[in-house]
Write a structure and sequence with these properties.
The protein has about 150 residues and is an alpha+beta fold. The protein contains 6 helices and 4 strands.
Length: about 150
């Protein structure tokens, strides 16, 4: 049972740390994906290299991790507040051609990054941007003025 508590504590600690870091730090993976990818090898490694002679302990740890990932996905799916807690919410960076510097600072997005994304969308000036949104996956979406 100690293994279940340890895995649960580490899982929640890493999830909290990744949420504090922000969206842009791990834009290719969701926080939950990254936690799973980081923890599975660590949980099995001790059994493989025989530091812990119990393969059962490693399998209990991995099963606990998979159960936590499954439970978090169910809770996030059913409760909007939990989804925002686990996955974050999009952030508005530009509104009607005006940069929202406070949001950019909070998300650690530079003006240069905004302009680079604008240019990738084929836009040349801020006046052409209706919205620029930092999505929960770390990508910036540009919505042009019509």
């Amino acid at each position: 049972m100690e293994t279940v508590f340890r895995v649960t504590f580490v899982y929640l600690f890493i999830l909290l740390g990744l949420r504090i870091l922000g969206k842009r730090e791990f834009s290719k993976l969701s926080a939950l994906d990254l936690i799973t990818l980081l923890l599975v090898p660590e949980l099995v490694a001790s059994a493989i290299i025989r530091d812990d002679y119990s393969l059962t302990n490693a399998l209990v740890a991995v099963a606990t991790l998979f159960c936590l990932v499954f439970l978090v996905s169910i809770v996030a799916h059913r409760f909007r507040g939990a989804e925002r807690l686990f996955n974050g919410a999009p952030s508005l960076l530009v509104a009607r051609g005006k940069i929202l510097f406070r949001n950019c600072d909070r998300e650690r997005i530079s003006v240069e990054e905004l302009f680079a994304e604008m240019h990738k969308s084929g836009l040349e000036s801020l006046e052409q941007v209706r919205w620029a949104i930092l999505e929960v996956d770390g990508k910036i979406s540009i919505v042009p003025e019509r």
